Amino acid sequence: MIDSSTSLLASQKHDIVRFAMGSPANEDIPVDVFREIAVTHLNPSSFTYGATEGEPQLLEALVDYLSTTSEPTSYDRLVITAGGMQGLDLACKIFVDPGDLVIVESPTYTNGSATAASYGAELLEAPMDADGLIVEALPALVSAAGRSPKAIYVIPNFQNPSGTTLSAQRRELLIKLAHDWNAIIIDDDPYGPLRFTGQDVPGFQHISPRDPLVFSVRTFSKILAPGLRVGWVDTDPKIRQLVINAKQAMDTCTNVPAQHMTAEFIRRGDLSAHLRRIRSLYFDRKCAMRESLAHSLGERITMTDPEGGFFLWLRLQGEDAMTSSTALFETALREGVAFIPGTAFSPSYKFDNALRLCFAASTPDRIQVGVERLTRSLDLARSVDY
Amino acid sequence: MIDSSTSLLASQKHDIVRFAMGSPANEDIPVDVFREIAVTHLNPSSFTYGATEGEPQLLEALVDYLSTTSEPTSYDRLVITAGGMQGLDLACKIFVDPGDLVIVESPTYTNGSATAASYGAELLEAPMDADGLIVEALPALVSAAGRSPKAIYVIPNFQNPSGTTLSAQRRELLIKLAHDWNAIIIDDDPYGPLRFTGQDVPGFQHISPRDPLVFSVRTFSKILAPGLRVGWVDTDPKIRQLVINAKQAMDTCTNVPAQHMTAEFIRRGDLSAHLRRIRSLYFDRKCAMRESLAHSLGERITMTDPEGGFFLWLRLQGEDAMTSSTALFETALREGVAFIPGTAFSPSYKFDNALRLCFAASTPDRIQVGVERLTRSLDLARSVDY
Fold first, then answer.
1. How far apart are CA B386 and CA B382, in angstroms?
2. CATH, domain B2-29+272-385, list 3.30.420.100, 3.40.50.300, 3.90.1150.10, 3.40.1550.10
3. CA separation for the pair A203, B328 (Å, rounded)
4. DSSP secondary-structure letter at B150?
5. B367 by DSSP, 3-state: which?
6. Predicted ipTM?
7. Within a 13 Å sphere around the CA of B329, how many CA atoms are in the beta-carbon half?
8. Do B89 and A24 touch (CB under 8 A)?
9. Out of B43, B226, B230, whose CB is closest to A31?
């Protein structure tokens, strides 16, 4: 008996449904195009030091591409970074000094808040609802904190982990408050181009063009391929010079072959085509996940209904709310499904009854299997609890 | 007349002899091999998130490769970084708090000292001679500073910019002092594998194996290709976990395609062959530069005689010592030769009568042309000075 259950476990482990990582599925990354570009477009200059601000061909391709979006920009505002993470590191390195107050969404992206904390920030967790960060609540929170924040870290579209989108009214109010407080808005938007339903909400750069208090962090990780580690920041030209100086002492320049490959990918127009394809794919996957969850778990959970991006935020209800998602994680892994427990998204470990589920990286069939396994895990957890 | 001199200038500018950048020549980077590896070895997993500590195949290839050198190591001590620069950033982020004293060589690598300063370090510049950092002088300097250093930043082999190598006796003394002070030795050694003459001096890791106070920063930038942005740190396993945590909030992971290409390059044994080839090349270039300088400038300069690496350190003597190398830089550029003025290597802008010359990136013929142009620049500067 032990042998057979062990081998069953092993076979399940090899077949885990991956709702955990915030990463596109391998099969949705255009690897063949990258290989072809590597042969035709990598040259000696791809392997030597590049400019710290980024390779000219990538900056040009990016300015061209962004001119077709709702957030056009110019060359003198951009710095290429090692993914969005380095954009956040740069923002915090430049703006956050020990003891500074930084407002973060609750829940928030762990590595974003961790970076602010690593520069000595005191984090103020601010609540969210279905329209994102409750901006109206900030003045009272700031007043209670007794001092103005130095920065406000926000993921406006299809937030990680909640999947919610900050409403237009709240964006406008947030800009007003930022000016009252002279605080930087760290506008982290990795998922914005992945809207598959509903209407675009104007971005901070659109609402308040060329606002020096808006520091925008972008990345190709979610819209193209995370392994490239290529992203960018879009900021006031004076701040851009600080970004370049800081990046010089972080990694000299972003890896050059990946910059050249990304530039050529955009230049061919493949990025727009790729985005159309994955938006449709991710919409189907989100619908599949919500339908499976509603069917299997019904009243036992609430869940968000994101209009784009990667993530659903699920909260356990009723008797299941007694189940710790942190404890559930191991049971679920044994059952063959992975997710991220809610506490990972709060510096003070809130949300132990919540789970972040990534729908973007699994097919609808696999999603159904994953949700069945998750349901079984919850049943097992409840039978232990009671 | 104006037209012809302008076009002469333009033609010279396009033909500048590049003694400035610390980078291998484009033609000495094995681009064809990388292109071939890109086609045969990049796969979907090359484009998704990698482990923060580095890709397993690169870590394994590196452990194998290092087992053939004087500094063998183990998997549990290594973290792959975005070049050596990120290794320095990680060291400073982990060990340096505002107000901490950090000893740096004088002259030193600008971005190394700048990184320490960016975390609030107070820099103590310590003098060097032909055997590198004068370690015997440190106790008196530290005593005068009134407190122990938190870290000692040292480039032991073929130092940037001086080209000198720290003697074995001084390395041993430095380890002893580090233990007296409980200070971290930031052992930055990008050039160690590029020894082309003389005997290897034992490294810190060799002298004091598994010493938690030795934090070693390494890179493929100088020995293979800087554009890859792939390096590594070799440190105590307990500190390694701090490195992984810190890197997680810097860039999540190092770009994955470059890690896979580097791993395959090493696995094929091409790194050893490549190192043999470039060592011989750089030896010829160093000899050519020293001969040209001795012939053209003789008593007007002193220069170091590096046994490896990239750089010669040249100091102006006699009447020429009145010439500012910072001012000379523009004249030299007009004459068609680039170098880095000495002040760039000191936080307090010492060494205005010194120049860093990179011999590694130019052929002996081009080196001769560059030295002739440098000589003409010095003649011009002197005729202005007097």
1. 6
2. 3.90.1150.10
3. 49
4. S
5. helix
6. 0.92
7. 18
8. no
9. B43
